[in-house]
Amino acid sequence: MSPKPRVFSGIQPSGMLHLGNYLGAIQQWVAGQGEKTNFICIVDLHAITVPQDPAALRRQTRELAALLIAAGIDPQQTTLFVQSHVRAHAECCWILNCVTPLGWLERMTQYKMKAQKQESVLAGLLDYPVLQAADILLYDTHEVPVGEDQKQHIELTRDIAQRFNYLYGETFVVPEPVIRETGARIMALNDPTAKMSKSDFTRGHAIRITDEPDEIRWVVKRAVTDPGRDITFSDDPTRAGVNNLLQIYELATGLSRSAIEAHFMGKGYGALKNDVAEAVIEVLRPIRERYYHLIDDPAELDRILVIGAEQARAVAEPKVRLVMERVGFVLAT
Ligand code: AMP
Ligand code: TRP
């Protein structure tokens, strides 16, 4: 029997999760549990590449752990852990920094976008994708399930792995990004030309995973559509709003596109919004309920994270030792 493929993904504890995170990433992570060996990492080292309030970061790290478990990540089947609990990530990042040309990092679109928003850009922000490469490569990862926005970072990870292997001999597995066709880029409800994002707090922009049904109805009812009337999937940028609602409906119900188009045939945008809101409410309801239950018991959450970190260390520590040996360090015992 061939060993199960290894899956690694990460998520930042930098604010309440939204529907884009759930449909673009977390739903895939949950679906792959069991058949694959899964590692899910709460990336607090990445979060501090832009300024964070320490108390808020600590709270958001526990909230994210609770949300992931509430959304179906089962700590018995998936190694769920916090990045800073496993020192190998920072250690491996340093070594990879020393094989990564600066030009590769300066080209990253996410860096350029984030840097524009900062008054003073921190060195860690430029280095962000190298830390991400360390995350992935330490676990001999085959598959990295992410949203579309992470594709460039996974390609950079492949380049770094190949360069290291070339310089120091076969060390790293070269991973593949796994990006779903539907849901890879859930758009903002108030602006279907922009990606739904954690950092936009305008009411109507996003649906947060813990939003109450009335809030979800409010947001979906005001979602930007277009002056047309067809309710069909399309790539036409002028119909991005309706297409976004249909993708959300597809992922929330699990129905096929043809069944969905048949369902909405002859109906108006009011009906579409109503059905999308109700479908989202039903998907999020059990998650919200489990979340409030879990967040009430921080000691239990911390216990789960301690176990996750132990499991992660058992893989990452021998790997970083191998990396150190390859580059010529005298290994400390
Ligand atoms: P982040 O919110 O940047 O920590 O992203 C966590 C995961 O959610 C990553 O795999 C992202 O690619 C994914 N993601 C974030 N925003 C969206 C979105 N609007 N649509 C689909 N996936 C997303
Ligand atoms: N950069 C990713 C994001 O913002 C988070 C992340 C960090 C990640 N390390 C990772 C994703 C490793 C996949 C694999 O979404």
UniProtKB/TrEMBL annotation:
CDD domains to which the protein is assigned, alphabetical: TrpRS_core
Entries under InterPro entries matching the protein: aa-tRNA-synth_I_CS (IPR001412), aa-tRNA-synth_Ic (IPR002305), Rossmann-like_a/b/a_fold (IPR014729), Trp-tRNA-ligase (IPR002306), Trp-tRNA-ligase_bac-type (IPR024109), Trp-tRNA_synthetase (IPR050203)
UniProt binding sites for L-tryptophan: D135
Motif ('HIGH' region): 13-21
TM regions (residue ranges): none
Residue span of motif 'KMSKS' region: 195-199
Binding site for ATP: Q12, P13, S14, G20, N21, G147, E148, D149, I186, K195, M196, S197, K198, S199
Catalyzed reactions per annotation: tRNA(Trp) + L-tryptophan + ATP = L-tryptophyl-tRNA(Trp) + AMP + diphosphate + H(+)
Primary enzyme class: ligase
GO biological-process terms attached to the record: tryptophanyl-tRNA aminoacylation
Chief site of localization: cytoplasm
Pfam families (UniProt xref): tRNA-synt_1b (PF00579)
Job description of the protein: Catalyzes the attachment of tryptophan to tRNA(Trp).
Family the UniProt entry places it in: Belongs to the class-I aminoacyl-tRNA synthetase family.
Quaternary data: Homodimer.
Name recorded for this polypeptide: Tryptophan--tRNA ligase
Gene name tied to this protein: trpS
